[in-house]
């Protein structure tokens, strides 16, 4: 494994050549000792284990300033690839070359000493990441402020919650001003407010031309953050290219290989069916719950002007209206709203979003907002569909709150057309 610059073309940040990683799997602990003591015999190699190839012959180059998403199912080899790039694993075969300082958000806090205080762990981890003592002293207050754990910074980290671990580790990692930032699902552990702040920081680094590898199961975030994506399956690269195309292909693969799900569910507090009494709840209590964040207060579905539990609509006739009420921290930019229509097996067939339509969402001085999505002459063919709603940050990246599968929408039609939706068309007699 190499970390020299000679293997690079101009502009490469990471170059991976014929990279493979194999793990030996022993059926019994004693087999590990046997393999160590008697690795050979007269007629060849004696093997007391079976091989698990996490990666096989991976080749890729990542240019400086690229933001690359990595997708794949659990066990596909994504994390192994990232750890090999970071140097925390040694490859079985192949070579990794890196040009620049790396900050890796893999298993956040894994390098923390639980007996040390937060402050002591900042010094230790920042030193490992390459900061000098004077640089650490210049940055430590900003690290503590960003993490939001100042009240506990001089307590042993073994007393921290997992969320506090994440916030402190992320704050240390980004403080080194890395050339390459590697993120492996780390941000999913933090709370909503910190996750938003983290995404904003990542966007700043992206805009500053940093190289970013972003591994996530959130295909929405991968497509939103990354111009390029790599799909890995069973240790091999299945597709590498434009993020929208890769995400579409990977989603089709998941749809084909995932069991059908027909279970609809409601959000906390029965957001679909909140009655008028909920409007009279204490605004002070409600607003306190959304400090540095936002959440849904009510989502209702109307068909042809009537609120209905049956949700029966008629293809190309009925009008559907989705009414959304939310609460948000008035000190943050106003949230954005997205609504999706999906099939019973989970495939999203259409969506609408305020940030895509450049629609300005109004809210009052207390952070309360109301918005309605209207769909005239609903363009769906017969079948059952799920409606879901999402509340996101102002850039449509970080999800504050979601209510998936709010209600089953049953579409009826008079004709016998097949599919999900009709398309505009014209029949003509062909005279040629």
Helix content: 10-25%
Query: What top-tier CATH class of the largest domain fits best?
Result: Alpha Beta
Radius of gyration, CA atoms, in whole angstroms: 26 Å
* Number of distinct helices: 10
**Helical/strand content category:** alpha/beta
Q: How many β-strand runs? A: 20
| Helix and strand sequence | EHEEEEHEEHHHEHEHEEHHHEEEEEEEEE
CATH architecture of the largest domain: 3-Layer(aba) Sandwich
The proportion of residues in beta strands is 25-35%
Calculate the mean pLDDT score and round it: 83
The CATH homologous superfamily of the largest domain corresponds to P-loop containing nucleotide triphosphate hydrolases
Looking across the biggest beta sheet, what order are the strands in? Answer: 7-8-9-5-10-11
Number of domains: 2
